[in-house]
Amino acid sequence: MSSSSKKRENSGKINYFQQFPKDFLRPYGVATLPRTATDEDFKMKLKNFTCEWFTRPGIALSELTETTTKNWERISNDLSDISFEPFFTEFGEIVKRIIKHMDKIEKETEVKQTAKQIKILLSSLKKKGELYDSYIDSFIHIGASMFSMGLHLKAAKYVSTHIDHVSKQCFEGNNLTSFLENPSLATYAEAAAKDIMHKSTVNESEKSPVKTLKDLIAERKKRKLDIELDDCLPSTSKKRM
What local confidence, expressed as pLDDT, does residue 84 receive? Predict the structure, then answer.
């Protein structure tokens, strides 16, 4: 048996840290390019060692369901928080100052002055408070949820519209034998259904020990309400309190 045949019969699960989403996000600079998540991009990047759609379609469907459900819940609950005023304006000013200082560093021509400006920047970042940290956390979580949910949905669409390509990538074994003998959306759906009947549930526990942006917004609103109520009280009542 050839090495390629052996590889085709490998029906093991995909390593958690090798899953395909990591291949679509750039490590720095602009996060994604215009061609990201196009059909050609998926054809090039989805592999049978990074994508459950090619090994255990039922598990892939389960991951799609969990990813869509949990991330849409987060997006629906938290997206409005990052546009809450006055936090949005306050944070925007912080970011503008950071960018301006970075530009200043880029324009320096001497090592000593450059080092001085870098130290100023890093020192200022070290002093950023609760609002800054909460905003950064919200951007990370909400942005990641949008990216992950969108990518999983588009991957599912690609798979459903490119069955021929899927059949060439799929491993033999598990519940894919009938599909590989007769590639079609119907036989693929049957393979996924068989997987689902035997799948194990993946449980996640997500706890954040830090105060969230939503917590800070609630506190700010409460403080504002307390001030407004206090202003409405007669001066004699204030003294008694």
Answer: 83
Tokens found for residue 130: 């609760």
pLDDT of 10-41, one tens digit each? 445 788 889 999 999 999 999 999 889 999 99
C-beta separation of 168 from 46 below 8 A? no
- Note the residue count of the chain: 241
**What would the pLDDT profile of 61-91 be if each residue is shown by its tens digit?**
999 999 999 999 999 998 888 888 888 888 8
The distance from CA 25 to its chain's CA centroid, rounded to whole angstroms, is: 10
Terminal CA-CA length for the chain:
87
- 40: buried, middle or exposed (CB in 10 Å: 19+, 13-18, 0-12)? exposed
CA distance 142 to 124: 25
The residues spanned by each domain of the chain are 3-199, 212-241
- Whole-angstrom distance, CA of residue 47 vs CA of residue 190: 21
**DSSP-derived 3-state class of residue 185:** helix
8 Å CB contact between 158 and 39: yes
The span from the CA of 60 to the CA of 76, in Å, is 24
Residues with Cβ < 8 Å from 241, sequence gap 6 or more? Answer: 233
Cα gap 18→20, rounded to integer Å = 6
Classified as helix, coil or strand, 3 is helix
Peptide linkage before 86 cis (omega within 30 of 0): yes
